[in-house]
């Protein structure tokens, strides 16, 4: 019996050693799997960051272009108004040569076409109710006056609208 116990004692440590090695191998495999997952996740995060940066840059470029375009239209609105005034004056005047009148009219037509292509609408309607969002009263009128249900009689300076954004309010007389 003593010999059997010795044999069992000798076998048991070997089995324990094997199970310990198997456990260690399992732990190592788990670590390898976790590292592979972390590597995969890091790669995916990297691609996601690149994609997000690209999308953000595209949005910023669009916003900059839109704001630059609005600024451009705002800056040339006075030129557009001057050309409109020249067209009105040249139609009434007899002393201006016909070729100059035609040149002014052609310039005006080209400008109107471009405004339409750029989706810019003029705010120049008369006999419509005053709207403080798109109209400004002429300077000599009091700002305290009640403008509810008052119609616009005359446009002093055209306003401009790009899509839903008011670039410049129209100056009006009520």
CATH class of the largest domain: Alpha Beta
Total domains, how many?
2
Strand content: 5-15%
From the 3D structure, determine the CATH topology of the largest domain: Hemagglutinin Ectodomain, Chain B
User: Please, what is the average pLDDT?
Assistant: 84
Measured on Cα atoms, how large is the radius of gyration?
A: 40 Å
Could you characterize what this model shows?
This protein has a three-stranded antiparallel sheet. The protein has helices at residues 2-92, 98-117; strands at residues 120-123, 135-137, 154-157, 159-162, 165-168, 170-173. With 174 residues, the protein is α+β, with helices and mostly antiparallel strands. The longest helix has 91 residues, at 2-92. Strand 4 and strand 5 (165-168) form a beta hairpin. The protein folds into two domains: 17-118, Alpha-Beta Complex (Hemagglutinin Ectodomain, Chain B), CATH 3.90.20; 122-173, no CATH class. The model has no long low-confidence stretch (mean pLDDT 84).
Q: TL;DR?
A:
The protein is α+β, with helices and mostly antiparallel strands.
Key structural traits:
174 residues, alpha+beta, 3-stranded mixed beta sheet, 6 strands
């Amino acid at each position: 019996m003593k010999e059997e116990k010795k044999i069992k004692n000798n076998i048991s440590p070997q089995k324990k050693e094997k199970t310990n090695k198997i456990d260690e191998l399992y732990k190592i495999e788990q670590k390898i799997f976790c590292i592979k997952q972390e590597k995969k996740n890091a790669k995916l995060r990297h691609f996601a960051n690149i994609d997000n940066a690209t999308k953000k840059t595209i949005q910023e470029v669009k916003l900059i272009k839109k704001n630059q375009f609005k600024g451009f239209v705002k800056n040339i609105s006075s030129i557009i108004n001057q050309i409109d005034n020249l067209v009105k004056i040249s139609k009434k005047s007899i002393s201006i040569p016909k070729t100059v009148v035609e040149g002014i009219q052609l310039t005006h037509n080209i400008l109107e076409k471009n405004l339409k292509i750029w989706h810019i609408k003029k705010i120049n309607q008369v006999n419509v109710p005053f709207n403080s969002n798109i109209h400004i009263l002429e300077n000599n009128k009091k700002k305290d006056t009640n403008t509810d249900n008052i119609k616009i009689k005359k446009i002093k300076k055209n306003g401009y609208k790009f899509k839903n954004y008011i670039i410049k309010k129209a100056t009006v007389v009520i």
